[in-house]
Amino acid sequence: MHSDTQADRAEALLPKRLLAAMVLVAIFALSLSSYVALTRSFQYQTRDEGPNAGYAVELAAGRLPTIDTPVTTDAHRYPLVVEGLGTMADEPHRHIWTANHPPLYYLMSLPFVATAKALDAPQVMVVGMRLINAVGSALCILLVGLIAFELTRRPATAFLATGISASCTVLVTAGGHIANDGVAVAASSLMLLGTIKIIDRGLSRKRLALVAFAGVAAASAKAPGVLTVVLCGAAIALALYLEDRSRRGALRALVASGVATAVPGLATGWFYVRNIILYGDPTATEALLSKFEREPNGTWWQVATDASLWVDWFERLWAPLLAERFVVVVDALAVVAVTGLLVLFLRGRTARSTGAGWRSSGWLLLGAHALVVLGNLIGFVASGGNANDRYLMPLMPLLASSLAIGLIAIVDVIPIGSPLTRVHLAAAAITLALGVYGFMIFDWFVSSKIYGGRLPNSESRGAEVVVAAGLMCGLVAVCLVAWSAKPSTARQTQRSSQT
After folding, report:
1. Is the residue at 312 inside a domain?
2. Of 186, 262, 383, 392, which is the most buried if we count CB atoms within 10 A?
3. 164: nearest Cα among 356, 333, 24
4. Residue 294 structural domain
5. In the predicted model, what is the mean pLDDT of the chain?
6. Is residue 423 part of a domain?
7. Is the model's pLDDT at 228 over the cut of 50?
8. 346 exposed, middle or buried (CB, 10 Å; 0-12, 13-18, 19+)?
9. How far apart are CA 499 and CA 286, in angstroms?
10. Number of domains the chain contains
């Protein structure tokens, strides 16, 4: 592809101060997820913790479960799992219905299963598996910011996108449970980031290795990761071929795309072949819908055109179903951001004149990814599946980046102070407000009846210290970005970027 000039490389650098601030925001979100992981009672069915824990137990015994494998009944080693199992009235919910997923997350959990057994401390497995998910969700938040920077090359916009995703209820609260979503979304986001880097900055061995590694992780964590692998491989092939349409260029595009897709395919294909043999399709969707006797929710088109479903789905990303009083904040965020995007469109400026950063290739990839994810989800819901808010997590890079650009577009037209100072201060202030909102949602959640009590022997004081440390990280992050708004600091940042 194209070679980077010195000016391109300078433009592509994310200032270290802003990167540190983005990491601190991700740590803030991690602290809230960790509190949930350390204290919330075991959620056997509502969060699929029972079958997910059962999956890891089976792997620890050297067995790969199926969706009909019974959850463990060893009450001595796994008392929380067995206690939840006893509350299930029907037989299907006594099985490991999550066994349709590939085993990466559960393999990562094996050290905690072994430690819990060695120490005779069952809670170690539960908390450990939860924390893996929490770390994955926090990494996703950071990756959202890095993707936003690749799309816009505006550090303040990237920081704001990180703050927007950190305020997302699903990423924070769902991240504190035994689930493979955090690892899966982080891996898919990493592959999208690597693919955008190849398309915009050029092909290199390191970037291709990153994409292949992320592809293996994405396809090994959850079935939708396979769709991301195929899409990114196709995007790499197309971008490289359009850059050089010679025979050599076509071969280069084919090899790069082959590495990006074949490596994950060779590493994970066996599992999806196994699913086809056992259930008739790679994801076991039809077998699971039949197992739980789910009825169709309408046709594909009916679900796709149900506006109320999509509005509700979007709102639930930032406000839980029972926390309706917080929905006004979500709606206001969307309205302001969409207004900003409309203003940006009507002004008709390019990325060079506004600095807004519309790098079409990256946006096209995220847009195509969103269509693939949504098309898959529409089919799942139409067939009888639940419209779970967790299923929209892969869209966070596109959603958060779009919302951040829309908000910054409003700031850009306010004639107060220098543009750089104005944008950095606005990004800091909005992120602070979103952080307060996120903490209010968190406080509501842990104090509500749906929290369902506490883990046995959980230490609330230790968990509160973790949250306090996370709050400090969030405040420091905001201060770092606000400090970057100082003219002298901005000039120093620009000089360092050019060296």
Report:
1. yes
2. 186
3. 333
4. 6-498
5. 88
6. yes
7. yes
8. exposed
9. 57
10. 1
